[in-house]
Specification:
single chain, alpha+beta, Double Stranded RNA Binding Domain, 6 strands, 29% helix, globular
Length: 119
């Protein structure tokens, strides 16, 4: 995946997937659902908006996938061991296109998630 950058912000590893929406956030989630068995917890976006935010769980740690501007970013919601964040970001760096069926199934699943996650 091009423009894949991992950096540290406030003591946490974060991921920037690059500008221009070459990869849609929903496609990345579909890939992670299949590859990393993530659990999508909530969404904070509408179908036809530029703002996208989705919270998901990977290995019992919560992460958020969002579009802060013209890029797609991912970061932990809580303190996460560096090894777990690095493993997840490594999986994202291996992104491969997903089928239309996988994308639609993820979109429908995302649509059914609540707007706010409450543990």
């Amino acid at each position: 995946m091009s423009n894949f950058t991992v950096y540290e912000h406030e003591g946490r590893l974060q991921l920037s997937i690059g500008e221009g929406y070459k990869y849609s956030p929903t496609s990345i989630l579909a890939f992670l659902r299949k590859r990393a068995n993530i659990d999508i917890l909530s969404k904070k976006s509408w179908l036809l908006t530029d703002d996208y935010q989705c919270e998901f769980r990977y290995k019992n740690y919560n992460f958020v996938l969002y579009t802060p501007s013209d890029d797609v970013d991912m970061c932990p919601v809580q303190d996460v061991p560096r090894a777990v964040a690095s493993e997840l970001y490594g999986l994202v760096s291996e992104y491969q296109r997903v089928s239309v069926v996988e994308w639609i199934c993820t979109w429908v699943h995302l649509f059914s998630r609540p707007f706010n996650y409450k543990p």
